[in-house]
Amino acid sequence: MLWFSCGNYSGLDHVNVGSGKEVTIKELAELVMEVVGFEGELVWDTSKPDGTPRKLMDSSKLASLGWSAKISLRDGLVDTYKWYLENVKQ
């Protein structure tokens, strides 16, 4: 994305990077559990605030320049976890 923006954007405003696809915290947590092979129970503390209801950033500026995410969220998590296992985990 960095190389793409260097060659395709010269403005001074910030440019959000994202897939443009919204995912809930629950969906993300379940996806992480699947990727790492966690078989425990996901427990929500409903006594705490929900947080921001929506977190989708507007990445239309970057999309209008022709950029789109090439890696899905799932594949990115898989790649990152694999890298972690190979490089960090003792």
From TrEMBL:
Alphabetized SUPFAM superfamilies for the sequence: NAD(P)-binding Rossmann-fold domains
UniProt cross-references to InterPro entries, sorted A to Z: NAD(P)-bd_dom_sf
Protein's name according to its UniProt entry: GDP-L-fucose synthase
Residues spanning the signal sequence: none
